[in-house]
Design goal:
The protein is α/β, with parallel strands linked by helices. Helices cover about 40% and strands about 15% of the residues. It contains eleven helices and eleven strands. The termini are far apart. The longest helix is centred in the last third of the chain and has 34 residues. Strands 1-7-6-5-4-2-3 form a seven-stranded mixed sheet, sandwiched between helices. Strands 8-9-11-10 form a four-stranded antiparallel sheet. It binds pyridoxal-5'-phosphate. Pyridoxal-5'-phosphate binds next to helix 1.
Length: about 350
């Protein structure tokens, strides 16, 4: 479905955070200049540096911290007006780190940033990673699924060149919580990171037992942290078999169309402002009737979101993008209908006008 190479391996994990953590552990071990399993981060001769856009999810930072790489060695690279990583700024930062004597070892691309749903230019990132001999990982937690849409497939171009991918099925694929997935192109690198004990011993043991190594490297406990685990791949397998690719494609497309619809309603209204281009299934917007300062707009829109939370009938979230408070509709529900978006739009306007007149009275 995702056009990732068939020779790649992978494992079902608990969600996007664990999927990223698992992939980054493999990246770290594969690109460390020491045997990471025995020496650990205490043995590396040069500081290992990771790069991601400033739209990257905070679970990436947590992974970097937990893997002992250190949050200071994660470089947050600025994004352009479309919230895509700036390739020139990335190149300059890598160059500076090389001059400083560090080891730039991993570039992380974002397929669907959590705030705005933006997609990096993956072919440019893959080219750069290849030139710099770096690991290329993509956090595609929800964004990967544009690949099965009719109109937005191109956003994921180049993802298939990544060394590893983190994907969720419990976000945009409408499945129950607890289903993420790490895919790794070099399955032996994946296996050697998580397998118990030292590489030389397991290969020896496998060969001694006369087993086919390809069988062993599909064993989930050798590819992720848990040893005892439930049959976690059964749920996604059954759901995919039951509903089939066509239905998922249709639903993904439906959510994209709904995001475009809401985006259009907002663009056409002088009282509303679109805060970021609608790239996929996320719409960032605010009530902005004109003539107000940034501080007043923040205040007004915070009142709106507080009122929305009281209603509890449906939920949108909020965020801060490029320093400005925004309402954020992330559309991942297969039951949403077009009229739901008319309702959201009208309600935000109604709440906004009411909050504005209350503020004027004060
Ligand atoms: C882009 C992205 N990456 C990673 C995650 C973390 O995934 P999970 O909540 O499944 O651990 C999220 C969750 O919001 C996300 O949007």
């Amino acid at each position: 479905m995702l056009e990732y190479p068939k020779e790649a391996g992978g494992v079902i994990v608990s969600g996007g955070s664990e999927a990223n953590y698992t992939a980054l552990a493999v990246a770290r071990n594969a690109r460390a200049e020491v045997d990471m399993k025995s020496k650990g981060m205490q043995g590396v001769p040069r500081r290992m540096i990771v790069y991601v856009s400033d739209g990257g999810h905070h679970c990436l930072e947590r992974s970097i911290e937990l893997l002992g790489i250190g949050g200071k060695n994660l470089r947050w690279i600025p994004t352009d007006d479309d919230y895509k990583i700036k390739i020139d700024a990335l190149k300059d930062t890598i160059d500076r780190d090389r001059v400083a004597g560090y080891n730039p070892f991993c570039i992380i691309g974002c397929a669907g940033t959590v705030d705005t749903g933006a997609f990096d230019d993956f072919n440019a990132l893959a080219d750069l990673a290849a030139r710099e001999k770096m690991w290329f990982h993509v956090d595609a937690a929800f964004g990967e699924w544009v690949k099965i849409s009719k109109t937005h497939k191109h956003l994921a171009d180049g993802i298939e060149r990544a060394d590893s991918l983190a994907i969720d099925l419990h976000k945009w694929m409408y499945m129950p919580y607890g289903i993420g997935c790490t895919l790794v192109r070099d399955k032996l690198a994946h296996y050697t990171t998580f397998v118990y004990g030292h590489e030389a011993q397991y290969i020896k043991a496998a060969k001694d037992l006369n087993k086919d190594l390809s069988d062993i490297i599909y064993s989930a406990p050798s590819l992720s942290l848990p040893l005892s685990r439930n049959f976690s791949s059964l749920r996604p397998y059954m759901l995919l078999r039951a509903h089939g690719r066509e239905k998922y494609s249709r639903l993904i497309q439906q959510n994209i169309d709904q995001a475009l619809y809401l985006g259009d309603l907002i663009k056409r209204d002088a009282e509303m402002e679109l805060m970021a281009p609608v790239a996929s299934n996320v719409v960032c917007f605010r009530f902005n009737p004109g003539g107000l300062t940034e501080t007043e707009l923040d205040r007004l829109n915070k009142i709106i979101i507080d009122e929305i939370y009281k209603i509890r009938f449906w939920i949108i979230s909020d965020s801060i993008i490029k320093g400005r408070f925004t309402l954020r509709a992330a559309i991942t529900n297969h039951r949403s209908k077009r009229e739901d978006f008319d309702y959201i739009y009208n309600l935000v306007k109604e709440l906004g006008n009411k909050a504005l007149s209350d503020l004027m009275k004060k």
